Amino acid sequence: MTPPLWSPSPERIAHANMTRFMRQVEDAWTVEIADYAALHRFSIDRPQDFWRSMWDFGGIIGEQGERVIERPGEMPGARYFPDGRLNFAENLLRRNDDEPAIIFNGEVRRHRTVTHAELRREVAAFASALRRAGVQPGDRVGGYLPNLPETIIAALGAAAIGAVWSSCSPDFGVQGVLDRFGQIEPRVIVAADGYFYAGKTRDCLARLAAVVRALPSVTHTVVVPYVDEAPAVGPVRGSILWSEFTGAQPASDIDFERWPFNQPLYIMYSSGTTGIPKCIVHGAGGTLIQHLKEHQLHCDIRRGDRVFYFTTCGWMMWNWLVTALASDATLLLYDGSPFHPDGNVLFDFADQTGMTLFGTSAKFIDAVAKAGLAPISTHSLTTVRTMTSTGSPLAAESFDFVYDKIKSDIHLASISGGTDIISCFVGGNPIGPVWRGEIQALALGMRVDVFDEAGHSVRGQKGELVCTLPFPSMPVGFWNDPDGRRYRAAYFERYPGVWHHGDYVEITEHGGMIIYGRSDAVLNPGGVRIGTAEIYRQVEQLDEIVESLVIGQHWENDERVVLFVRLRDGRQLDADLEARIKRHIRENTTPRHVPSRIVQVADIPRTKSGKIVELAVRDVVHGREVKNREALANPEALEQFRNRPELRH
User: Fold this and answer.
1) Model confidence pLDDT, tens digit, residues 568-605
2) Rounded CA gap, 101 and 95, in Å?
3) Which value, in Å, is the radius of gyration of the alpha carbons in the chain?
4) At 276, is the pLDDT very low, low, confident or very high (cuts 50, 70, 90)?
5) Which of 284, 451, 454, 640 has the greatest number of beta carbons closer than 10 A?
6) What's the pLDDT tens digit per position in 226-240?
7) DSSP bridge partners of 220
8) Cis peptide before 146 (omega within 30 of 0)
9) Residue 122 near residue 152 (C-beta atoms within 8 A)
10) What is the residue-wise DSSP string for 415-447?
11) Crossing angle for the helix pair 149-160 and 116-132, nearest 10 degrees?
12) pLDDT at 248
């Protein structure tokens, strides 16, 4: 049997939060928990006891109430801690000392440290300013910001008074912002004057002015000076600089009012590549307890750890990162390109800050490998205990690269879930082995399963990722969906009473999971279902290929596989390279995986959070309209796929 790529040492297991939690569960409920598998069984067989234990272990500040689950048999419909009350911001601002709460690095000569005491004071000042501006519980506060300390301060200030935070990345165009904020009608917008990316300064004020003109609900537009100390905000309706909005007088400490467990906290957005984005409302309590579980148990985050995720404020991993404050950790923020001036910048940041958790994406790891970097030789990375990867499936070869070229003694946790649940269905297990190409574990408290087309649970074969038990971070609902019809249609129509997530997956013999891609992008040549990740894994091993995208094209009453490739600068797709691509795929998969057509393109379209968009490309190839180009980081790339002569025969 092939050995695992990594196993935790006995000392690491003994000191892990997971081990301590297992002992707590044993003592509280008089059960025997021998290993992770036993703990997972307990968590889904006795969810009320599990989530009570998680509340206590995470040290949640608030009142649990008498009931853990209301209507436990209903999905949707079940509600966790229906009598509970808490304040999300209070739980993240529990420290009031002079240790760093946030360490920020910007691409262009910007470095700041904010202590826990300073963060608490700044949040108090912003919360007071929101109240003076007339913001009430349930009102929306929008962020159009880079990954700055002020973004966190504003979000926590909104949470402190029961308002709802919703943010977009500053690289969104005007229509992209309006597609989101136009639905939720924010009372206040917080924005930066600009940002830095890849050595360039990008202005935001002109777009901000256009956004606010189209949003009559906005009464105050708070501008954070980032690229200019005195930005010209005159053309922006209702504009006021951050310092003027929060006031010169120091705020008194916050009086944290406790809200119901399911008080709306965040409005998140689906990618919006198939239409106007869905506005997904997440509650304060569900977000908090899920993140505490994932941080403290699955990622082994402890007091004093330094936690990093490379993310924009338009991706749910930003929200996930922020909650690490509730585990008494320091947040490490980086804003800018991860490859400017070169691919070492984030590894430099890790060494400079004593990073303990390095959060990134599968795409970044692949790009570092393609750039020929070997941080294991150029950087210390002594403090980094855990590396998490999400956004797309992490190829088996990328697992090899992490252990061979980044660090040999590291817990590599490939994780997956989504904006829909603001958390993970599957993730890391710091007391278990890491197997090549596999996500380690089904997440605690999540009764994850794999269903076939008929809705039967299957093992040893691919199928649909589902969850058959309600969990705390299910959405409170969708915005402007009073009867819940759109919410039910999004997740519960395929298998009634069961959450259908839309990933094409397989549970492994080790109890982990392999994700083969999104279900709606699955290829179906000759009636055989093939996950797109199966092809990406093979193609992107070839040095000439920077990245790729694969779709199924309707052809002669069937479907044929079409592969698009972006090559290294100066390379052309010739007959030899095409033959090598096909041979490599055939030798490592099956003949059905081999594309009928391979086409070179200059760019691959992707969302703002870096995910490639097979569905949008498939629509273009078939002559259908792409409904929401504003959701893409590079919508101009779609034109390369229209009316390709290679696809007419």
Assistant:
1) 999 999 999 999 999 999 888 888 899 999 999 999 99
2) 9
3) 24
4) confident
5) 284
6) 999 999 998 999 999
7) 188
8) no
9) no
10) -EEETTTTEEEEE--TTSPBPTT-B-EEPTT--
11) 60
12) 66
Half-sphere exposure of 464 (CA within 13 A, CB side): 21
Q: Does pLDDT of 628 surpass 80? A: no
Structure token digits, residue 382: 């002594």
Token duo for residue 618: 């498939």
Cα dihedral sign for 320, 143, 128, 185? negative
State how far the Cα of 646 lies from the Cα of 649, in Å rounded to an integer.
Answer: 7
Q: Does the structure show a pLDDT above 90 at 275?
A: no
CA separation, residue 644 to residues 68, 598, 617, 622, 639 (Å): 57, 11, 12, 11, 10
Rounded mean pLDDT of the chain? Answer: 94
Sign of the C-alpha dihedral, residues 142, 611, 272, 467? negative
User: 362 near 133, Cβ under 8 Å?
Assistant: no
Place 273 in a pLDDT band, splitting at 50, 70 and 90: low
- Taking phi over 0 as left and psi of -120 to 50 as alpha, with beta for the rest, 485 belongs to alpha
Strand partners, 164: 140
The CA distance from 534 to 594, in Å, is 11
Minimal CA–CA distance to 343: which of 371, 323, 318? 371
Helix locations, 484-611, DSSP H:
485-491, 532-539, 575-588
Enclosing H/E stretch for 259: strand 259-260
The pair of structure tokens assigned to 86 is: 């808490």
